[in-house]
Design a protein that fits this description.
Layout: H1 2-15, H2 17-45, E1 57-66, E2 69-73, H3 80-87, E3 91-97, E4 101-107, E5 110-119, H4 123-127, E6 131-134, E7 145-149, H5 150-157, E8 166-169, E9 173-181, E10 194-197, E11 217-222, H6 228-236, H7 238-242, E12 249-255, E13 265-266, E14 269-270, H8 274-302, H9 308-316, H10 321-358, H11 369-395, H12 399-403, H13 411-447, E15 458-462, H14 471-480, E16 484-490, E17 500-501, E18 505-506, E19 517-522, H15 526-530, E20 534-537, E21 550-554, H16 555-561, E22 570-572, E23 578-585, E24 600-604, E25 615-620, H17 626-640, E26 649-650, H18 651-657, H19 660-694, H20 696-704, H21 709-743, H22 754-780, H23 784-788
Parallel strand pairs: 5-10, 7-9, 19-24, 21-23
Antiparallel strand pairs: 1-2, 1-11, 1-12, 3-11, 4-5, 4-8, 6-9, 7-10, 8-9, 13-14, 15-25, 15-26, 16-25, 17-19, 18-22, 20-23, 21-24, 22-23
């Protein structure tokens, strides 16, 4: 019996090649798209799964309240790790880790600039990373120990065991390789290539040892049965006890399992993050799969009347409804698994491009149990979902009715179902078109806003070696090239300021007012190099010693200061030291590109005093050949700082990188909207062909009676056009509500305009008309003699 059903299915597929192609192709594309998305979702959910202790590992973040608003910060004070390990029960281990930063390592003539972190030795047992060489138990015991990853080890030592070998850091200090750990996967929060004991840097500034300066990342490992709520309760007041009841900073535990997907905080509480995008694309995956199944159901029910006599004969021969349902669901399952096999091929073909798009290194292994089970389940579920309605519909035919060629009464009901399914398909497609346009508009809206500085022709690099000490020489040599407009030192790049405080006072300040103010130490050329504009006062003098007790503030801070917010006013720090405001720079956007400008202060220091100047920014003149300019600048940097590579970043590239997630969302929405439309059009194409085939004699009679080709094409198209218009009517309000809600998450956002909906609707209608018109015109051009000769 089963063998007979398989033969029947294959014969049916070969007999109706076009129908089979449309059905299987639609399913295959839908399954392939959904599978790629689910692979991405799996990768997101498996973040940090390489760490065995992830359920016990926590990151200590802190909430601080300024002007009634709670902000969440990632850094902590130097003494925190040791303090909580000693003072708080339930904390098994704790470690400090610096922010990720590149350092130059050298072995003889070979040098590599690689990113890594300074860390307490406790981080190794906490992360429990697998070592290829060396013993992690004592790998960071000594001040000059370094552990490196496999890739870095191969670059320096090939396949040899590097333990005991020496690497020189920054041409200043020798470190002995004590271990080699396996490369960390891309879906890991930690991405360091080397680790060095943090004791090498934790004493270089006096504030690194006090409780009030948050400069280092702190991680904790809890006992397996520790009470997280109780520890958080203690942490909330822990800093207050250490700082004489200063309760503005409250620490809390942030579990490793939440680091990737729930990393957004609003008013001190977890509020979304990447999980929103995971949910969104999971929803899109199921929608695309549903659209593919709808195609199958539509085409199957549409062509069901052609198999009516087969059903009638089988029923007369004794086949019950259950057997018929089993047969047709079996056919659907066979087609589904053919589509699955084709989808696997499409996945392998699309994977490199998809990885490039989402910037991941995912792979699909058909023999991997989880992937095999997924494909098996998706094939069964899709087959059952797609074949269930056609199976029950076909098996319900009355044998006497169909064998007497009487019109099947239930066809009207099936027609309504088909129309409803087409409406669902195009509703989703129109929704995705509108979503893609709105996301693009929002990104462009932020990208084109007035930033308060000029990001074009501006590069920056991390200072290394003697770059800060030699800044005057570097600056003069750069200016002599005739290609460089200006250059400056600073703590941070112009789009990011990492240091802030509320410890400033001015005349008339309300004691209850405590705004968080960003602080940037710069060389005198910084304002001009960044392309900022002064609203009042003057810029720093090039002779920086003149301005050692002067500052420049931005308009946002001047507004908060009220009457004292003018050039010539005095600001005092926590120690009471006075600084005169000599200039007010126009507001500029930094850190959060969607928010208004936050208050900021610039201090001017001589290059020798800028020990914390981590960044050198260089602005090229307008119209210069950038490749030539970079070559000459690279030569100057290397000449003044020998032994270090010339590595730089463009500020506008960093600016675009800020919108990485939004850009990805927009791109994927556009891609999947196009695929959803394509799959929908495959089904529409098949339905149009079936409709034209059913009405071929009607068309012949109309042509004989004088109907024009255009009139016949319009007659056949109008029913489908109505369905698309209904889809637009449903999609428009749904899209407006959903996208307005999404836009509310951004402070700086666009308004949703009516023309976006009009464009999406017209586009959907044009695509549908183009799809249907081909079959309509083809039918209208058919010679009526051929269609009517049997009469």
């Amino acid at each position: 019996m089963i063998r007979n059903y398989i033969k029947t299915t294959l014969r049916s597929l070969l007999k109706n090649r076009s129908y089979s192609f449309l059905n299987i192709t639609g399913l295959a594309i839908g399954i392939a798209c959904a599978s790629l998305i689910f692979l991405w979702v799996q990768d997101e959910f498996s973040y940090n799964h390489n760490f065995k202790k992830r359920d016990q590992l926590y990151w200590l973040k802190n909430n601080q309240t300024y002007e009634g608003k709670i902000s969440t910060f990632i850094g902590g004070p130097g003494p925190l790790a040791k303090g909580i390990k000693t003072d708080i029960p339930g904390i098994k281990n704790a470690a400090r880790v610096s922010f990720l930063n590149p350092q130059l390592f050298a072995l003889g003539e070979k040098s590599i600039n690689d990113e890594g972190q300074y860390a307490d030795k406790e981080i190794l047992p906490m992360l429990d990373m697998p070592f290829v060489h060396g013993n992690p138990a004592n790998a960071l015991d000594q001040l000059n120990d370094v552990v490196i990853n496999e890739t870095m080890a191969r670059k320096f030592f090939g396949d040899a065991d590097p333990v005991g070998k020496t690497l020189r850091m920054n041409n200043e200090q020798d470190f002995i390789v004590t271990g080699v750990f396996k490369d960390l996967p891309k879906n890991s929060t930690f991405q360091f290539h080397w680790l060095v004991p943090i004791q090498n840097i934790d004493h270089k500034q006096p504030w690194q040892t006090i409780w009030g300066a948050n400069w280092v990342l702190t991680y904790a490992e809890l006992e397996p049965n520790a009470d997280v709520a109780a520890i958080n309760k203690t942490l909330a007041h822990y800093i207050a006890h250490k700082m004489n009841n200063d309760n503005t900073t409250q620490f809390f535990l942030f579990g490793m399992n939440d680091w990737n997907l729930h990393n957004n905080f609003v008013d001190g509480k977890m509020s979304g993050g990447r999980i929103q995008y995971v949910k969104l694309f999971s929803f899109i995956a199921w929608i695309i799969l549903l659209i593919a199944c709808i195609n199958f159901m539509n085409l199957s029910t549409a062509r069901s009347e052609q198999r009516a006599k087969e059903v009638g004969v089988r029923k007369v021969m004794g086949a019950g409804k259950g057997k018929l349902v089993g047969q047709f669901i079996g056919e659907a399952l066979i087609m589904s698994f053919i589509a699955v096999i084709l989808a696997v091929g499409l996945i392998y073909l699309a994977m490199p491009s998809f990885n490039n798009l989402v910037e991941k290194e995912m792979s699909v292994n058909i023999l991997e149990p989880s992937h095999l089970v997924y494909l098996l389940v998706i094939g069964i579920v899709t087959g059952l979902l797609a074949g269930s309605y056609p199976a029950f519909y076909l098996s319900s035919f009355n044998p006497i009715t169909v064998l007497k060629n009487i019109r099947i009464k239930s066809s009207a009901g099936s027609g309504f179902v088909r129309q409803s399914l087409v409406v669902i398909q195009f509703t989703v497609s129109v929704f995705l078109i509108i979503g893609t346009v709105i996301i693009y508009q929002q990104i462009q809206h932020v990208k084109t806003r007035q930033l308060g500085y000029n990001k074009d022709n501006l590069i920056y690099m991390n200072t290394q070696g003697k770059m800060v000490d030699h800044f005057s020489s570097i600056y003069n040599d750069l200016k002599k090239t005739g290609l460089v407009e200006n250059a400056a030192l600073s703590d941070n790049p112009v789009i990011t300021i990492g240091s802030n405080t509320d410890n400033y006072k001015w005349e008339g300040k309300n004691p209850a007012t405590n705004p968080l103010i960003s602080v940037q130490n710069v060389s005198p050329q910084f304002i001009a190099t960044a392309g900022m504009k002064l609203a009042a006062g003057r810029d720093f003098y090039l002779q920086s010693s003149i301005d050692s007790n002067n500052v420049i503030i931005n308009e946002a801070l001047a507004k908060i200061m009220g009457k004292a917010g003018h050039a010539g006013s005095i600001l005092r720090d926590g120690g009471g030291h006075p600084y005169q405001v000599v200039g007010i720079v126009k507001d500029f956007i930094y850190n959060d590109m969607y928010a208004p400008s936050a208050p900021a202060i610039f201090f001017s220091h001589p290059s020798g005093a800028l020990a914390g100047a981590f960044v050198l920014s260089i602005r090229f003149k307008q119209g210069v050949d950038l490749q030539d300019a970079l070559t000459k600048v690279g030569g100057i940097i290397k000449a003044n700082n020998p032994g270090y590579p010339f590595e730089y970043k463009f500020v506008d590239d960093d600016f675009n990188q800020i919108f990485k997630t939004e850009n990805l969302t927009g791109t994927l929405s556009g891609v999947f909207a196009s695929l959803a439309i394509f799959i929908s059009c495959l089904g529409l194409f098949g339905l149009a062909a079936y409709t034209a085939e059913r009405r071929i004699k009607e068309i012949g009679i109309r042509k004989v009676l004088g109907a024009s080709v255009s009139g016949l094409a319009a007659l056949l198209s109008k029913d489908f056009l109505k369905l698309v218009i209904i889809s637009c009517v449903i999609a428009f309000p749904a899209a407006w509500l959903a996208l307005n809600k999404w836009l509310q998450t951004y402070q700086y956002r666009i308004d949703v305009h009516w023309w976006v909906f009009a464009v999406a609707g017209i586009l959907a209608i044009m695509i549908a008309v183009a799809t249907v018109s081909f079959q309509a015109i083809k039918a209208a051009l058919t010679n009526p003699v051929k269609s009517l000769r049997s009469e």
